[in-house]
Amino acid sequence: MLKIENFTKSYGEKKAVDSLSLHIQKGEIYGFIGHNGAGKTTTLKAATGILDFENGEIYVDGVSIRKDPISCKRKIAYIPDNPDLYEFMTGIKYLNFIADVFGVGAAERGERIRKYAGLFELTASLGQPISSYSHGMKQKLAIISALIHEPKLIIMDEPFVGLDPKAAHILKEIMREICAHGGAIFFSTHVLEVAEKLCDKVGIIKGGKLIKSGTMEDVKGDASLEAVFLELEEEDD
Amino acid sequence: MIKTLIKKQLLELFATMFGRSAIGKKGNKKGMVALYAVLLVYVFGVFSFLFYGTADMLFGSFVPMGLAWLVFALLGIAATGFGVLGTVFLANSMLYNAKDNDLLLSMPIKPSNIIISRVFTIYIMDFFYEAMIMLPCFAAYIVRGNVSFGIIFGALVLLFALPLPALAISLVLGFIVALFSGRVKNKSLVTMIISVAFIIVYFYVIMQVENYIAMLVSNGEAIGAGIKTFVYPLYSIGLAGTGDLLHLLIFTLFSVALFAIIYLVVCKSFLKLATMKKGGKKAVYREKAYKNRGGDIALLGKELSHIWASPMYLMNSSAGSLILIIGAVALLIKLNDVLVILESFPAFSGILPLIVGAAILSISSMNLVTAPSISLEGKNMWLLRSLPISAWSVLKSKLSLHMIVNGIPTLIFAVICAVFLPMNIVSRIFLPVLAIVFNLMFAAIGLAANLKHPSFDWTNEVVPVKQGLSVLLTMLVGMGVTMFFVIAYIVLVFALELALPAEIFLFAVFVICSAATVLLYSWLYKRGTKIFETF
Predict the structure, then answer these.
(1) Minimum Cα–Cα distance from B296: chain A residue
(2) What is the CATH code of the structural domain delimited by A2-235?
(3) pLDDT value at position B320?
């Protein structure tokens, strides 16, 4: 579903990500972990088509994001680390805007808005301006909008930040449901317990390089993911 | 602490003024600072020139009557009005809607220090507006031979004291809007109505200036006596301007006291107003029928929602359209009077299409919808970049917004003029066409300027809308284009004495502007979209 080959991105002289390669199959949840500034957000943004890059190639469902970004973006949903949404819109206007952009039909969007807004207990607030929402409500709205076009690939940057325990639980359920239906999920997190329980594959990035990647069993073996992560972090320090 | 906060305010201001270069390459930064300085000097120069002429004319009439103080008093009012008009939206947005309010309030900083740092920025703007009027006023007075220590000292003190009443009024209006926004559901509508009413009154007064001046000249002494009796601070401004040190002291104390009282009121209520939940009673959402509008319509809808939700953006970018609509309605109401005036000046009718065309051109050039539109995406840029929409679709939605907000009112004005005013068929056809071409051109100029000089690191929308480099650049290009055509006509007809019919000149303007518009749209499509993809 997502194939990243030798992806390299520099900001001026500094290489933020250096020759990173990874492959996420349909039905997989891939957790991306690393310390702050390791290159996680840069990789996620490039995979979404937001950031241009110097070297390498990124394919979404076999299509190069460089050559045909619009076609790739139709299959993707992206949730950033900070839900900066259009505060001048109401929740429902925002959802309709996203659905319009993705060309979601009236019946399907109605059904999905009812379903997900109901699950995240946001239905009553949909008529309010986003500017009046709390951080958690904005995060829930960003998640609902990401699900409105039934994306094949969801890319999320720290999706659990700001969510209450119930909403976090629902999101995990939805992530599993999407993968069970042939979708794929690529997300970054600092909550290693969540990654350990939720992910099929995991990648550890350090200083812009993917230092470990594979199935959860391959990466952590009998140890905990936290122990492996801390060990790898300390290795070259 | 205040110093640090003021530094932060100024950093934000400079980052927006100079776009990305403010935090980028040093050489580039110097170039942008120099360019901005030139542009500011140009704007200041143009307005100063206009106000020097007005002041000189008034002194010519009033100095012999011993009423020089009345000129200072009148221009003092004009400067205060100009300052209030320029900063009325700024006060509310900067104080109560700044995105860093929560952050700053969570720090060990006194709210009064936060307020003073923001008020200082508004004061600087008020000072700029006021100096554009009062500096030429003092210059005109001094040029007439009135030089003394009192006059020079008075001028210096007045320059710094006079922005205080304007600042106080802006703070009061900002305070009222903030107070309302907690109780009224549709804050935009209320702000919009208040703003439109304010602007209509302001322009009504401006349009009546000639009558007022005539009235002043014939009743100067009586008006002077009235001001002296009923509006003492104005009398003090006037006498302070002429070098009366006692009245300088009275006015300075009055200004400082007025500002201090308003400042204390703002400080007392700041925490409550800056942190209160806005929008009144919250209604529970009731589902309505859904429909698929398509991406392009959705983008345009988003732009319309944005401008409608931001009265400051709407008024700042389409005040010219409001003037045109008011002008069109006034023309229809006073049509018979206008036709009588035109009949009594036969020579005037030949250049009437040019006058209407120049009015459309100059007012279109002041409507800056697209100039801050890229910067206004701010932290939401990730959305447009991650959605399956082309950069051209995004740019098109911003250009379309300009055409809806400004193109339609301009077209209405042009059609009304073309239908009801006496001119030949060619001019009747050309004026509406030119209205469209001018708006297409200025929409493209604004967008191109903002693509080249974007600024996304603002904490308040006022900053990119009112102080962005792209806005200033677009405004100046607009003024330049208008001046170019006016000067070209004067040179061709009056200096070279060419028999140039109005229709031929309008056609030449049409050809030049159309060519420029085609080139601009081609640039936006090819280069502009590439630039957008790098944001």
Answers:
(1) A101
(2) 3.40.50.300
(3) 82
